[in-house]
Amino acid sequence: MYRFPVRAAAASFMLALALASMRANAALPPIDVSGFGTGGFVVTDTGKAEFGRAQEQTVGANSEGDVGVDSLFALQGTVHLSDMFSATVQGMVRRTFNTGFQLDVPVFFVKAELTRDVSVRVGRIQLPVFMSSDYRQVGYSNTWVRPPIEVYGQIPFDSDDGADILYRKTVGPADISAQVFYGKTDLNFAGAAIQSRKNWGANANVTVGPLTLRVGRSQSSFTSRSATVTQLLTAVNAAGFTALANRLNPVNVPFDFTDFGLSFDDTHLTVQGEITKATGGGFLASTDGQYLLAGYRVRKFTPYAIYARQKVTSARTDTTIPRFGALLPLALGVDQLINSVGADQHSFAAGVRWDVHESVDLKLQVDRVSPEGNGLFINVRPGFRGPVTVASMTLDFVF
Amino acid sequence: MKRSSKTMIAAGLVFAAVLQQARADVVVIVSAQSTTTTITASEISRVYLGDSNTMTPVDIANPSRARREFYTKVVGKADSQVKANWSKLVFTGKASAPKELPSGEDVVKAVAADPHAIGYVDRSFVNMTVKVILTVKSP
Fold this sequence. Notes:
The complex is a heterodimer. Chain A is mainly beta. Chain A has a single domain (54-62, 126-398), classed as Porin (Beta Barrel). Chain A contains five helices and 16 strands. In chain A, helix 3 (227-238) crosses helix 5 (328-338). Chain A is globular, with a radius of gyration of 22 Å. Chain A starts with a helix and ends with a strand. Chain B is of the alpha/beta class. Chain B has one domain: D-Maltodextrin-Binding Protein, domain 2, CATH 3.40.190. Chain B is 45% helix and 19% strand. Chain B has a five-stranded mixed sheet with strand order 3-2-4-1-5, sandwiched between helices. Classes of the chains: A mainly beta, B alpha/beta. Chain A binds chain B through residues 32, 34, 36, 74, 76, 78, 86, 88, 90, 107, 109, 111, 116-117, 121, 125-126, 134-135, 137-138, 140-142, 166, 168-170, 173, 175, 207, 209, 265, 267, 297, 299-300, 355, 358-359, 361, 398, and chain B through 42, 46, 51-54, 62, 76-81, 83-85, 87-88, 90-94, 96-97, 116.
């Protein structure tokens, strides 16, 4: 287990239960149990690269087909300790950072509802950077099969260990919600450890009728430890390019993120779009992302289309090291490093959501993905060329 | 001839009354202690979709004619949209989905006890402990 989440979550859950049982009447507090899941199958038309749902997946789908990209199952329990306090734990089985499925605890927190409008949560929460961050794994809550990786892949992690303040208020025709958060994220996977520190940010959402507008801003301090990067930078330093080695050193690198979102959800028409800007320091690439989804609900069927795009806005090559002789491999190594996060890629998708039954939907989606070079594909083999066609089928449920 | 038409009228009236009973208005209620006196259908809809937190919504468990009528005419969204919306809030722990109570009587009891609560029931369940703030007209 990577983040030791299960033990910590279990401990906080037991603590919550213990606190609850200390109440005078000793009756068990009310517990809500709910869950969601997706069963999915994805197949592409290439055997030379793999298509993943998110940056943290190290195995994806190719022409042989794969069930691990979208399939997941989550169970959530909330214990209502008192009118003010509650504790929530969510356990999820999915594929992240690994070839197989594993249990992960993406959410566990204690919440205090200070007033009807203000609550504070302490623990692990979903990193609230995108419009659909909070429910990106809940297939049933979304029109699409999965969030477009061109945008949702701009940040390679989705949880935050810390605290947040939630504010909700209805003012005339407008329903307002706002959130401020602070925390950190630790990730460990094969060959590298990532620490995101001083994660902080804020977002505000305003809903008037079917229309919701959102703005979000966050920043963090990013550290990545991997043997290959250390080796490369040691060589760069030894070759006399000390300033470059220091500039690329992946320790406490600033990372800023800005997000504008729009959604419109009426009886028939459903539209959702976001414009994002990620600005990285050091070796981290800066990227712009955009997507737009439009769908039209006719009774139980919602045909939809999506366009998504990621564009790298920082330099793709570094010219500090001369590109000849013995220095060439070093220069190419540096280029590889500064291209390790982010890529130019766009995709068109068309699909249909069918609400088969209460709380169950079935989706079919075909993506035409056009990467520049390797784009956001993983496990790329020599001779890979886009565009790639990706066909997906998922069954989503909530209970 | 005269008698049979009278009988038919009487039978018709009885039938209409039965129909009336079966199709009693669904009403939206709040606690008698609630400060809310008027509310628009759109405001109620926002509460039941989880967009607005001004009130705490209470549901009747399916299958229920009152529920079907209320969601069709007041909320105006498909079941899947309502469920998808609440799932967004529930799986982030931001809010809890409306409590589902087995009967209209239970809804009246729950609404009466909480000045923030809002519910819907057949008019026949209404008593002194709650007040009607909106009537959903039967067809």
